[in-house]
């Protein structure tokens, strides 16, 4: 059993007990994501940006418009970041930590794969 499935089961159990509903879960997760002091970026299995929190933009100086809907290979080619931890995670299928240069700042960046039930990567979550 994966950590991801344990959490899903815990949430399902809370819903069964009428302690929380699906809309509440979504609101809680979005609130946690946006309130994190650490920068968080999420890409899909193709390396396309789908979520970024305000802390990521505060830390890096990169706006959500520069990342969302773009493939990280393109973001590297545009010179927004020096290299992409997302691309490395997709290639290695494992967590990766790098020092990334973003607009003259050197940042410690860690990418983690999120696997689906079929064993394929569905998301890459990056922390700055």
Automatic annotation (TrEMBL):
InterPro entries listed in its UniProt record: PAS (IPR000014), PAS-like_dom_sf (IPR035965), PAS_fold (IPR013767)
Residue ranges annotated for the PAS domain, each copy included: 25-72
CDD domains: PAS
Superkingdom of the source species: Bacteria
PROSITE patterns listed in its UniProt record: PAS (PS50112)
Gene Ontology biological process terms, A to Z: regulation of DNA-templated transcription
Cited NCBIfam families: sensory_box (TIGR00229)
Protein name (database record): Transcriptional regulator
Pfam families per record: PAS (PF00989)
């Amino acid at each position: 059993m994966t950590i991801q499935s344990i959490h899903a089961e815990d949430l399902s159990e809370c819903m069964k007990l009428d302690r929380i509903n699906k809309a509440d879960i979504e609101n809680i997760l979005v609130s946690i994501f946006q309130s994190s002091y650490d920068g968080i970026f999420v890409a899909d299995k193709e390396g396309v940006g789908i979520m970024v929190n305000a802390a990521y933009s505060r830390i890096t100086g990169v706006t959500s418009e520069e990342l969302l809907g773009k493939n990280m290979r393109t973001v590297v080619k545009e010179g927004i970041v020096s290299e992409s931890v997302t691309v490395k995670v997709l290639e290695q299928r494992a967590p990766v930590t790098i020092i990334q240069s973003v607009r003259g700042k050197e940042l410690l960046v860690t990418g983690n794969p999120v696997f689906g039930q079929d064993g394929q990567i569905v998301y890459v979550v990056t922390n700055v």
